[in-house]
Design goal:
The chain contains eleven helices and 13 strands. The strands form three sheets. A six-stranded mixed β-sheet has the order 5-4-6-3-1-13, sandwiched between helices. A four-stranded antiparallel β-sheet has the order 10-11-9-12. It has a three-stranded antiparallel β-sheet with strand order 2-7-8, with helices on both faces. A hairpin with a 6-residue loop joins β10 and β11.
Length: 382
Amino acid sequence: MTASPGLQRVTELFRQAFGSEPSVVASAPGRVNLIGEHLDYNGGPVLPFAVDRRTWIACASAAEFAVVSAEIGGAPVVRRDEASEGDWSDYLVGVMTELRRAGQAPAGARVAVASEVERGAGLSSSAALTVAAAAALTRLAGHEAAPDLLLETAFRAEHDFVGVRCGRMDQTIAVHGIEDTATLYETASGTRTTVPFHHDVWILPTGVAHTLADGGYNARRRECEEALRRCRTRLPTLSSLAALNLEELEDVSRTLEAPLDRRVRHVVSEVGRTRQAVRVLLAGDLPALGRLLVEGHQSLRTDFESTVPEADLLVEAAVSAGAYGARLTGAGWGGSVIVLAPAAGGAEIVAAVGDAFAKVHGRVPRAWPTRPSGGVRVDRAA
């Protein structure tokens, strides 16, 4: 069986950087969130799937902890402490820190990273990186890591060590992704329900990279936390913003000044769209799913204010060209737009969108199709 290009690439990088063969190689996928944006930290349902592009980690035991990335370039970087340095390697140091606490870490390691998941494209390259690293390093230490340990290690590395106030959606799908299947993940309870999904989705990067450790994402999370605190003055037992029903929303909105009222309205309406999306997907009604995607994008644009003009243009152009629907996926402030198009003619629709985008921005997005793929795996182990 021929090794995948990703496996070959990361193995060759390891040889070039460290002059030896890796002992373990593991990989994990990026993800698309069909709908349910900004609900994972608000206690709501989300509907993600793993994409067919992955991040690969090759490693071997060493006295030090040295890391190198094909995407960043340069010589291996040795990290000697557990303090964050504001560098990409913080994600890997965070994984090692969490594994040490769990008694699952090697004493040291040489680590090479190669990724097919574009950074800043809204496809959760960070979860792909941390989940793959957790799988590779636990195996290097001689352990068979349970999925829950991989998930929690990756989450803590990003949330606690790097400082991105994320929920657990991205890590969950990177660990538990299933081919041809989206996952309804109830973030309040942690339950997962499989939803068959056999249709291609096109990914169109906006070309605007986002950084989640600062800026809009953490600000929106703080706003949601403040809104929940205010809502609880009228509804003391309210567990989360996503638990609000429409009648309660109308009541509490009168007590919330802008922009908190709009943030809450997005959360509550997005919960409804996500549950409806599952129903129409199970019924095979792709046009109805497309309409929900567009409604979700408009809510992100007006109520959550997390889109960018490039994303708005791509969505409008996709709908005008005949797509069932489109919306920004991921946290926002850049990233990628997903386009749901008829199987026949999808490439032509995407080409028309590219032409419309190029007229305004002078470039054509590097579009590619994907469908649900599998989650984390160990690709090679000594």
